[in-house]
Structure formats: structure tokens, C-alpha cells
Amino acid sequence: MSLKYKVETANLLVYQVHDNNRSHIVNLENKTCSCQRFEYDEMPCSHAMAVLSKRNLSCYKYCSYYYTKEAFMATYEDSILPLGEATSWNIPDLIRNIVVLPPKHKRAAGRPKKQRYKNGLEAKAQVVCGQCHQRGHNKRSCKNDPVLKPPRKRKRS
């Protein structure tokens, strides 16, 4: 991914990364990038990775402690004790008498959203002309002669 970027040095810690028609500023000292993914994810974005690759620096130094093995192990350090049988639980009456119902569903106004968002790699559906039945244009912009369908034979009953 970092191979398509052109990296220019502003100073030892600030770099300008060019990608086709876009340009991003990466600051290694502050762990920031103008795309803001570096700060948001707390791990190097693709622009920062291009800079780190050019300088032969380890990307692990620029990742948050949150992504380390030590942080993962610390998450599960404390043990979770089993609760035992439900009959032996001490539940206060105030909580025991509360009835939790599902939320009331209110349909939103307007057209419903699509169930699924298409991946960027999925091919876009091509338009098919209703006049000449070729792909890539519609009936309104068609410059071809119309294709006549043969007449359908009637069924006898």
C-alpha cells in the first residue's frame, strides 16, 4: 500500500506524502496525519506507514499500548468467578420486580435504508438500453437503430 505514495521530507519528523492528486502531512513526533486516521485509530495510517517504510522505522513504536500483547493479557488478568445456581442469587426486591420490555418499534419516515452497503470492489451494475439492448447507455441516449422483437405466437386454447 505504501508503494504508491511519494514521500517528501519537510524536516526530521514532518513529511509530506503524495498520492495521485492528494497530499497529506505526517508528523511522527505527534503521531498525527492530515487524514486523521493516525490519531483516530492510534496506529499508523497508510501515509504514516509510507514514511516509516522510507525511514526504515518500526511501526510498532507508533502504535498505541491498546494494541499490544501486554494490554490484551491485562484485559483477562482478573478472573471472573462463577455465579452458581440462580436459586442462590441474592437479588433485591426492587430489581426482582422490574419487568423489562423490548423497546417500542417506531418505523422511520421516508424510504427505508438499504439492507447492505456494497463493497468498493464489487462491480457496479451496467445500464442496459431498452431500445437496442446493449450495455453502457439507456434508451434516451441511444444512437443505434431499435431492435425489433419477432411477434409472439398466440397460444390456442
Quick description:
The protein is α+β, with helices and mostly antiparallel strands and 157 residues long. The chain has helices spanning 37-41, 46-55, 69-75, 93-96; strands spanning 6-9, 14-19, 22-27, 32-33. A hairpin with a 4-residue loop joins strand 1 (6-9) and strand 2 (14-19).
Structural notes for this entry:
This is SWIM-type domain-containing protein. Residues 135-157 are annotated as: Disordered. Residues 15-56 form the SWIM-type domain. InterPro entries: Znf_PMZ, Znf_SWIM. With 157 residues, this protein is of the alpha+beta class. The chain contains 4 helices and 4 strands; from the N terminus they run ββββαααα. The chain has a 4-stranded antiparallel beta sheet with strand order 1-2-3-4. A hairpin with a 4-residue loop joins β1 (6-9) and β2 (14-19). The longest helix has 10 residues, at 46-55. The chain is flat and about 80 Å long. The model has no long low-confidence stretch (mean pLDDT 88).
